[in-house]
Amino acid sequence: MELIKAKDYQDMSKKAAQFIIEKVKANPKAVLGLATGGTPVQTYANIVEEHQKNDTTYQGVTSFNLDEYIGLPVEDPNSYHYYMNKHLFSHIDIPDTQVFLPNGLAADLTEECSAYEDLIKQHGGIDLQLLGLGHNGHIGFNEPGTPFEQRTHVVDLAESTIKANARFFDKLEEVPRQAITAGIRTIMDSKEMLLIVSGEQKREALQHLLHGEVTTDFPASILQQHPHVTVIATEDAL
Ligand code: F6R
What we know:
The protein has seven helices and ten strands. The two termini are 15 Å apart. It has a single domain (2-234), classed as Rossmann fold (3-Layer(aba) Sandwich), CATH 3.40.50. Helices cover 32% and strands 18% of the residues. The protein is globular. Bound molecules: fructose -6-phosphate. Fructose -6-phosphate is lined by residues 35-39, 66-67, 132-134, 138-141.
């Protein structure tokens, strides 16, 4: 794992955006794996700003998001579809037909999971997967206890994740209890990963990720076994 230290959230976001932009410039047909949550917001804003300034094109890029809540329509401001349109897709030139998120409204959710997995394969797999880090070590919505071999699946969110994500909703009760997430195996199949971590509240999780035991009790620890992971972390998270 390569560790890049960032001064603060702004610096982390600048470095992460540069990292992604360089990959897209080097491979204009890159398949990106994308994350939502609080951490990547400024990274996406920087990508948008750079696109507007330098015309870096995303016309050949395909993206697959890690996860989506079950039961929220695309136009719900708390759906990850909505988040991605708001923060990234509607501001860059990536074609709508090349952005994919799991469909949390699918009639057959099991079928949706295997179709999503197939779609990633059909596109040749993920070239660069962007990841955030959950306080409990989750990546995507792979909560502690998730088998490392699992692919895209339906999850019951951990109580701690529901509480952590409640900040985006009006009330705790409004946070969906389930999501579809790319599995740990899906994530580990990515050719390269970029994990971004910011804030003192992530310090314990980051220490485990970097130096702790590899265990399903802390899903992100499996990244220690991937050959090509870059972590960009702020000083306070370190
Ligand atoms: C989001 C995702 C999650 C987040 C994690 C950290 O698509 O997959 O694993 O990356 O919950 O969230 P934040 O960045 O809000 O601390």
